[in-house]
Amino acid sequence: DAGNIAIFDSKGMFQNSMSPTIEKLVPSNFRNKNWVGITKRARILFYSPERVVNDDLKNLNYEDLANPKWKGRIVIRQSNNIYNQSLIASLIFNNGKETTNEWAKSIVKNMARDPKGNDRAQILAVAAGEADIAIANTYYYALMLSGNKGLEQQIAANKVLPFFPNQNNRGTHMNISGGGILKYAPNKDSAIKLIEFLLTKEAQQHLVNNTYEYPMIEGVEPHELLKKMGTKFKQDLTTDVASYGQYQSDALEIMLNAKWK
Asked: What digits encode the pLDDT tens for the residues 96-105?
């Protein structure tokens, strides 16, 4: 998660990890001079097609989940979860702290239950009828669909559908898996070559086939399960993922003030 990487970097744990090859391959919002994204994931909505209609989803943004129409219908993880903190940090980056504070209060009012469980637990809750919308990372849904987490989770995943918010403005919230070169690593040149290798088509194909994440570079096909979810969605390429670390403490403060458990 970019939030963890950025915090690690802020403590002076990395050294310059860039090369011309890396800079060419990875968009600037998914890296800084000390670390780089290797693969991508989106944090999106998963909804019940039985209880959420097309009109509900038309032009839907993350911001719109604060609408009272969603009262008692949303499930999401706890406030101490880094994925949530990064999502909230992105909202602070785009909308400001005051607006995001009010949004978080409304989200808590719209929760179907107190936050609990992992991302897959949120999707399971929608499938079971406990909620209408879950917020979760894309690769967890693909993992469930794959059957690798058992038949029960596969059946549940097939009862919900994915939705990519904010398609008419900045795009869907994106995050990364990534890394950098440790400050005292003795073999920097070799470490650079490793990062460059992880950004080759061969390595990227292996990574996306085994993690259900999106490739960082062009020309690599995502896993078939991701293709079924849709790959033509607009990604947020304007929000610098380094901001997830910058605003992480603000994000947690906002959630705790909103009584987000």
From this structure: 999 999 999 9
The ranges assigned to domains in the chain are 41-171+238-257
Q: Which residue type occupies 214?
A: Y
- 150-171 pLDDT per residue, tens: 999 999 999 999 999 999 999 9
Structure tokens at 259: 């009584």
Contacts 24+ apart (CB under 8 A), 90-95: 90/173, 90/236, 90/239, 90/243, 90/244, 91/62, 91/63, 92/243, 92/247, 92/250, 92/251, 92/254, 93/239, 93/240, 93/243, 93/246, 93/247, 94/170, 94/239, 95/63
- H or E stretch covering 209: helix 201-211
Q: Going by CATH, does the domain composed of 41-171+238-257 fall within 3.40.190.10?
A: yes
DSSP 132: S
Q: How far is Cα 154 from Cα 144, in angstroms, rounded to an integer?
A: 5
- Residue 258 and residue 107 in contact, taking contact as beta carbons nearer than 8 Å: yes
- Predicted TM-score (pTM) of the model is 0.94
How far is Cα 218 from Cα 204, in angstroms, rounded to an integer? 10
Of 150, 178, 180, 169, the closest CA to residue 95 belongs to 169
SS3 state of residue 111? strand
